[in-house]
Amino acid sequence: MQKWIIHVDMDAFFAAVEQRDNPELQSKPVIIGGLSGRGVVSTASYEARKYGVRSAMPMVEARRRCPQGIFLTGNYDKYIAVSREIMNILADFSPFIEPLSLDEAFLDMTGTEWLFPDLVETARQIKARIKAEVGIVASAGIAPNKFLAKLASDLDKPDGLLIIRPGEEQLAIAKLPVSRLWGVGKTTADSLQKLGINTIGQLAETDLKLLKKYCGNFAEDLQRLACGIDDRPVIAQHEPKSIGKETTFEHDLVSVAQVEEELLLLAEKVGWRLRRYCYSARTITVKIRFASFRTITRSKTLTDPTNFDELIFTTAQAIWSHITMNEGIRLVGITATNLQAGCGQMSLFSEETDKRQSMYQAVDKLKAKFGEKIITKGRLVSRDD
Ligand code: TTP
Ligand code: MG
Questions:
Q1: Distance (Å, rounded) from C-alpha 299 to C-alpha 321?
Q2: Does the active-site annotation cover 104?
Q3: Which candidate, 376, 384, 379, places its Cα nearest to that of 268?
Q4: In principle, which of 85, 124, 255, 285 could form an S-S bond with 335, CB 3.0–4.6 Å?
Q5: Which atom in ligand 1 lies closest to the alpha carbon of residue 74?
Q6: Is the distance from CB of 361 to CB of 278 less than 8 angstroms?
Q7: Angle at 295 between CA 289 and CA 297, to 5 degrees
Q8: Please, which residues have CB within 8 angstroms of residue 374's CB and are 6 or more apart in sequence?
Q9: Is residue 267 in contact with ligand 1, taking CB distance under 6 Å?
Q10: Which atom of ligand 1 is nearest to the CA of 15?
């Protein structure tokens, strides 16, 4: 199966968040970092980069290069919160995400063709959602491996979107300096330069024996990278233990019918997430928080794991039918646990199941393309949210 990785990285992350939150900073050279005498630059907006300001540069040097800059210390807690929002969006596109830092992550898209047939379009959607929901700009790279995907996201910055297709690997990187290779710092780059090797293409063509003399055991890996080969897998942070969704209402729900409507909506969301992550669940939990903040959770375990909206809904409804509603409700949630990997309705093989499965594949394709709200159960269509 063709491996496909998307690497997503925010543009001038800390500075972008500050520009988002303060309109006066937009389009201005914003420099974030330590402002004391020995401080260094964390990042600079692209406007400031025009003056040669870069990450890790002493702040005094940044001030010298860009005296008209706006210098800020930044707010790390805020960046962590924003990072969480970004990673949550990415999780909607693949269950296999490896965050590399606060502002970047790899998504393993291998085997998701049925859901995301056009990865350029998928990357465009990821960028659009980050822009719309988080308010900052991301660059994306798509390639058959991690090294090339990360490179691709960087080559077209800011607001980049670049794909390197199988077969194009070597050509795409041949002219770049060797310092673009992972693990090549200044020392290695200098010793390679002494051998007359400046570009990745030159390195790819260098005799391996000669290379080993200068770079030791590192030579083989280095040359493979130079040929655009990288087998490292995306290491997802953890397997999800649960997949759930909850809603807090602006106005408390006051009728059983309202709660059931919410359960239906939540069941669709949980079902969609389970199918997208290729999981089925055996246990469904309903969480209710009453107006008084009294909170209860009730669960039911099924004989067979499911990821079908209607089974999640009927199970949630059965749980709900045992709960007495003697005050308003401020929050309703559904969580699926006892997860099993697998896209289909496990252990239920019947014509009916097959039919449902193809129906969900069609529905999920539309949801992936146009957003979750494009298709919903008939009884929910009158809702205006
Ligand atoms: P990067 O993604 O390396 O940089 P960036 O997002 O600011 O700019 P771009 O990706 O468009 O080139 O790092 C993400 C954040 O990490 C950055 O906004 C600030 C922080 N950081 C530091 O604090 N020190 C550093 O030396 C670097 C490189 C980043
Ligand atoms: Mg970045």
A1: 12
A2: yes
A3: 376
A4: 285
A5: 19
A6: no
A7: 100
A8: 366, 367
A9: no
A10: 18
Contact (CB, 8 A) for 19 and 45: yes
For residue 285, give the H/E element and its range: strand 279-290
In degrees to the nearest 10, what's the CA dihedral of 199, 4, 10, 34? -60
Do residues 123 and 29 share a domain? yes
Total domains in the chain come to 3
Q: What six digits make up the tokens of 115? A: 């859901």
Distance 156 CA to ligand 2 centre (A): 12
- Residues 246 and 217 placed together within one structural domain of the fold: no
Q: Is 226 helix (H, G, I), strand (E, B) or coil?
A: helix
Q: What is the pLDDT of residues 74-88, one digit of tens each?
A: 998 899 889 988 998
CA of 69 to the centre of ligand 1 (A): 18
Over residues 10-57, the pLDDT tens digits come to 999 999 999 999 999 999 999 999 998 888 999 999 999 999 999 999
Extract the tokens encoding 347: 């252990």
Same domain, 154 and 18: yes
> 142 by DSSP, 3-state: which?
strand
| pLDDT given at position 361 | 79
Ligand nearest the Cα of residue 12 is: 1
231 occurs within a structural domain: no
